[in-house]
Write a structure and sequence with these properties.
six-stranded mixed sheet; globular; alpha+beta; Immunoglobulin-like
């Protein structure tokens, strides 16, 4: 049976998911195959190293992040895993800062020769870029005089880049429109010759493309007649995005292309085929109720662009999915929460450590999700341990502990914390903080969240990369502790639910 195209989604990995139900009749085995719509969100990604190079227009001037921020958002939305590189990481907006992608080489006031003098050293600081975005030369015409040497300097810069990192593809633009005599000189001495110089580079076998950026950004989007405003910077991002897509197409959606089941005596055997990549391994996962997933004890090596696997279906399994990458542990899969609404500071910081003081007063809860609703709301279906009576009008804070064990023979590679939360939290692994949201710098036993978290966002898992804290995992017993916080003592609802996973070899 061939499936229509679909994608299963998960915050932690790229997944394609199916549900199957079998019903024996005298004539056939009936298969029902459908899409699982998960609350975990992610996209199939392909790594893309982007290197923005230029002057104040690359830096941004009128908007933190410049064109780099809208370009980053467009690329990641299309499935690229973007790594912005450069020697500096200043003048970034919250999007780039949160993503850790502030790097660039946009230097306000710089001319072509200044970039040329530094570019070889800069290119030694990071992995060879896939694309280098070059918009430089505006300041070479800043004095209003003719400048016939700038175009040759641009040519020399392209040569130096090509010799230093021949695998990188340069996208080189002409210069934007600007006010005054400088604009006339740009149109006389520089812009008409950019494509000619690029053609010469291409004739030498170098990877260079021309982008007509001047046509993309009108003077009306440059209020100071020199720097694009946010609208103009966004148009620059759109132009770069289109040029990058032509060079490096976005990754195809990860999908299962066929799924078949057959009876073998008292067993059922499944055969799954999916589109794959040359540098990946894949893991088949199974579940009975689509909430607790288990890896099959094998990784499937790629078969190239298409990979297939046949396996015996475990008794009771109804859900299957393919996960790209290494196998993983869901550390909290078999965990039940222990919770306490503190009445004073007696426990101090000891409540988050592995060893809990005797008589600390923690209550055994059910499952992972803790919270309450004072009226029917969207948190109700998620809450397993209701703490309404303990928290409401008493304390906006609650202490949560999730004990788990690591496997002694696994080499863990990553650590990812998924969180549903309303309104804030601080998370600790074995007593050390690993993440926080909407929490003040100093927290106490009765701390409130610094702001509310919209309910429709609170029910979506937020994925937090905690791999920098992988060394905190201990062989055997561990504790994920969460200080949950409502934004007020009388808040009408509250929710905390964690997921903690790690890939292993």
């Amino acid at each position: 049976m061939i499936l229509p195209q679909f994608i299963g989604r998960n915050i932690f990995k790229h997944l394609s998911t199916i549900l199957y139900t079998t019903m024996k009749t005298p004539f056939q085995l009936l298969l029902l195959i459908t899409l699982i719509v998960s609350s975990f969100v992610s996209k199939v990604t392909a790594k893309l190293i982007v290197y923005p190079v230029g002057d104040s227009i690359t830096w941004g001037t009128t908007a933190p992040g410049g064109y780099r921020s809208p370009l980053y958002e467009k690329l990641t939305a299309s499935g690229y895993e973007v790594d912005m590189v450069g020697s500096v990481k200043d003048f970034a907006d919250r999007v780039l800062i949160d993503a850790g992608e502030e790097h660039h080489d946009g230097h306000s006031g710089w001319k072509i020769l200044q970039i040329d003098q530094q570019i070889e050293g800069w290119l030694q600081l990071f992995e060879a870029p896939d694309v280098i975005l070059i918009h430089i030369g505006t300041n070479d015409f800043g004095n209003g005089a003719s400048n016939t040497t700038a175009i040759d300097q641009l040519d020399n810069l392209m040569t130096k880049i090509a010799q230093t990192t021949p695998s990188s593809h340069m996208i080189v633009t002409n210069l934007l429109v600007r006010g005054g005599n400088a604009n006339t000189n740009i149109q006389t001495d520089f812009n008409p010759f950019v494509e000619e110089k690029i053609a010469g580079q291409v004739a030498l076998g170098r990877k260079v493309s021309f982008l007509n950026m001047r046509a993309a950004v009108p003077l009306s989007d440059m209020p100071d007649r020199l720097h694009p405003n946010l609208a103009g910077l966004t148009k620059m991002a759109d132009a770069y995005y289109s040029a990058i897509q032509k060079l490096i197409p976005p990754p195809a959606p990860f999908q299962i292309t066929s799924f078949q089941v057959q009876n073998l005596a008292d067993l059922k055997q499944a055969s799954i085929t999916w589109n794959s990549k040359a540098d990946r391994t894949y893991v088949i996962q199974t579940a009975q109720d689509a909430s607790r997933w288990s890896d099959f004890p094998l990784s499937v090596p790629t078969g190239g662009s298409t990979t297939s696997q046949t396996f015996t279906i475990p008794a009771g399994s109804r859900f299957f999915r393919i996960r790209e990458g290494l196998p993983s542990d869901n550390f909290l899969a078999a965990t039940n929460v222990k919770w306490l609404v503190p009445s004073d500071a007696t426990l101090d910081d000891t409540w988050s450590t592995i060893t809990l003081a005797e008589g600390a007063g923690f209550i055994d809860g059910d499952g992972l999700a803790v919270g309450y609703e004072t009226r029917l709301g969207i948190f109700d279906p998620l809450i397993r341990s209701n703490v309404l009576e303990a928290m409401l009008s008493t304390n906006p804070s609650i202490y949560l502990r999730y004990g788990f064990n690591t496997h002694p023979n696994r080499q863990y590679q990553t650590l990812t914390l998924g969180m549903r939360y309303d309104d804030g939290f601080v998370a600790y692994l074995n007593g050390t903080e690993i993440a926080r949201r909407n929490a003040p710098a100093d927290v106490a036993w009765n701390t409130k969240a610094t702001k509310s978290h919209i309910d429709t966002e609170a029910v979506e898992f937020e994925s937090i990369d905690a791999s920098n804290f992988l060394g905190l995992l201990r062989p055997g017993e561990n504790v994920l502790a969460i200080h949950g916080m409502n934004n007020s003592q009388g808040g009408s609802d509250f929710l905390i639910e964690p997921v903690l996973t790690s890939d292993f070899k």
